[in-house]
């Protein structure tokens, strides 16, 4: 990733999990990263760790509630005023709420839509504005989706989560269409859809993966590697959709003789 040194990436949900692992890899590789999350102390701890290890890039922290459009707009104003143009927008933040259609809470459904659909869409819009304003030659918007954006979870309480991720998949394709129509083919839009990743998102949703084998689960660092790979592609290569599964889980999905 040497050719990306000095470029600017914005990572949402950067305080933990995939977002934190991605921020670490990018700053270590010499990029300037703006980490956005609600938990400012987590971001500051991450920044301190990077500075102590003398990473070659820079890490900036911005506290932001991604379910609040005003917060998002203020975050991007800070980026515009202090950083300038951005090259990569990595929409990583997401939540899971177990809430059935038959008897679930509307507030949980709204949280899912606000965080998993509205937030990445608003961030994509604002990132595009900064790319245009600062004449970024090769921009890239990356949505961290889910395998459930292509199928349905067997958990009855996951259907609104499924819907939010499928909506994000459609919106990413729509983003590519709009970029082409606007004559902004130099800005790419990619979707990365992992299977089960060991992050705090499942703890918050009170979901357990204790019954799963270690080989069935991806690590946050493995997903960060995939994000970095997509970012490192040349301007003429678009990875429109990447589905990332653990090899163990993939093997189990096929019948054996």
TrEMBL record:
Keyword Lipoprotein: no
Gene3D superfamilies per record: NAD(P)-binding Rossmann-like Domain (3.40.50.720)
Family to which this protein belongs: Belongs to the short-chain dehydrogenases/reductases (SDR) family.
Protein's name in the database: Dehydrogenase/reductase SDR family member 11
Organism this protein belongs to: Aphis gossypii (Cotton aphid)
GO molecular function: oxidoreductase activity, acting on the CH-OH group of donors, NAD or NADP as acceptor
Pfam families documented for this protein: adh_short (PF00106)
UniProt keyword terms in alphabetical order: Oxidoreductase
